[in-house]
Write a structure and sequence with these properties.
The protein is an alpha/beta fold. The chain has nine helices and six strands.
Length: 234
């Protein structure tokens, strides 16, 4: 089943929020999900300890560079989706995860710092493609955007991505209180009280549209060559 990794070489780009939104949306559809929490902050692992975690979401936080590839291989055989939340740096864990991913989502806020962090991941993907000898499908997700205003910095990032021909999701992840509350109170958006959370309906719509775009890219042409190569070698 598809392996979807979230990566940006700069921390704070919205990787963990994007990964959790996708995981909870997929789980709400009845699919089994395994999340690898490779972020040192372990926000998703903390979320998993809160009430309301769907029973069809497993979270794995014990990860090493040597074990990760085989762990992902095992999880992809038993889960409908495998989601990997990577740390904001470049290291062997990140490289190993990207090389076995069917889709890499690169979250970028509307800032030049995030764009540079995303560019590092794009460069790393290009290098890995030469090593693994197949394309690694990837796209950019704009995160923490303002629903009402497009800033000059965000416009500049969008123009830079367009010039480079980078695939950018049409649905940006809007800054919403409901997304922050997931990490405070647990569960998914479906568990939140619309009377207590502002614009919950809009948050749910935004998350559903974002997830639909990601899943469409992940299943159109999943790359399984890495699976076959690793299986023969193991």
């Amino acid at each position: 089943m598809p392996v979807i990794s979230f990566a940006n070489a700069k921390g704070g780009a919205g990787k963990t929020t994007a990964a959790l939104l996708l995981a909870t949306e997929v789980a709400e559809r009845g699919k089994r999900v395994t999340i690898f929490d490779a972020d040192p902050q372990k926000w998703i692992s903390h979320w998993a300890e809160l009430p309301g975690r769907p029973r069809n979401i497993d979270v794995i936080s014990q990860i090493t560079p040597a074990s990760l590839t085989e762990q992902i291989l095992d999880a992809s055989a038993s889960s409908d989706y495998v989601i990997v939340d990577l740390e904001g740096t470049e290291n062997l864990i990140v490289a190993n995860a990207l090389s076995v991913s069917d889709l890499v989502v690169i979250p970028i806020q509307g800032s030049s710092m995030d764009a540079r962090g995303g560019a590092k991941i794009l460069t790393l993907i290009s290098k890995l493609e030469k090593i693994v000898k197949h394309d690694i499908r990837h796209c950019v997700a704009l995160t923490r955007t303002n629903a009402a205003v497009t800033t000059r910095a965000l416009k500049a990032v969008q123009e830079t991505l367009a010039v480079r021909g980078i695939d950018v999701l049409m649905t940006a992840i809007v800054e919403r209180a409901a997304y922050r509350d997931l990490f405070e109170f647990g569960g998914g958006l479906c568990n939140q009280d619309p009377k207590a959370v502002a614009n919950l309906g809009k948050a749910r719509e935004n998350a559903a549209m974002f997830s639909a775009e990601v899943l469409q890219r992940a299943v159109v042409a999943p790359r399984r060559r890495w699976y076959d190569v690793f299986k023969k070698a193991s």
